Amino acid sequence: MSRTKWAEVDSYLTDKLISPDPVLKATLAANATAGLPSIDVSPTQGKFLHMLATIQGAKRILEIGTLGGYSTTWLARALPPEGRLISLEFAAKHATVARENIAHAGLSEIVEIRIGPAAESLAQLHAEGTAPFDLIFIDADKPNNHTYLEWALKFSHKGTIILIDNVIRNGEISNAQSTDPNVTGTRAMFEIIAANPRLQATTLQTVGSKGYDGFTLAIVL
Length: 221
Prior knowledge:
Blueprint: H1 3-17, H2 22-33, H3 43-56, E1 60-64, H4 70-76, E2 84-89, H5 92-104, E3 111-115, H6 118-127, E4 133-138, H7 145-154, E5 156-165, H8 181-195, E6 199-208, E7 211-220
Parallel strand pairs: 1-2, 1-4, 2-3, 4-5
Antiparallel strand pairs: 5-7, 6-7
């Protein structure tokens, strides 16, 4: 079955299950106008994030990898008025676009975007004594997936949900001979999960408008 068919199915599901949303549409348009890479989560994946945060009853969310704020908006909309979302973005240009999109969505009061290498931002959060998060979404540079997971554990409490995107790498994740840093970093992440008794996890492969990939869902015990 072709990627074209996957995209057609994604389009059908989006039409049936997701109401038209001018704010989210404007976010994607602003990202495209600014020349940001088109690697946002799909609408169905965005709604999945929103529903997961809602089911969790999340009040505090950490997002590693902001891009233009599309997934950020989906997640932040699940928070209560007193909620808080901190999103970490490496590129200043991306963060500027994201802040504008977040403001347009009316979420600036509960969303904070920090700029810089995520590992450095995470270390700073730790130094500040930042409280644990209820949900952590990891969707940044894949070579550092294992590093981000280790930090996520430091910011977790019992019951925290950790979601890591793009872990299948078009099937290359099963290739032990791969030298692709995106693959090796993600395989190192899986080694941490497999060896850590604090984590219960599963991974689902996905197909759709974003191609063949998948995500890992872990719960801190």
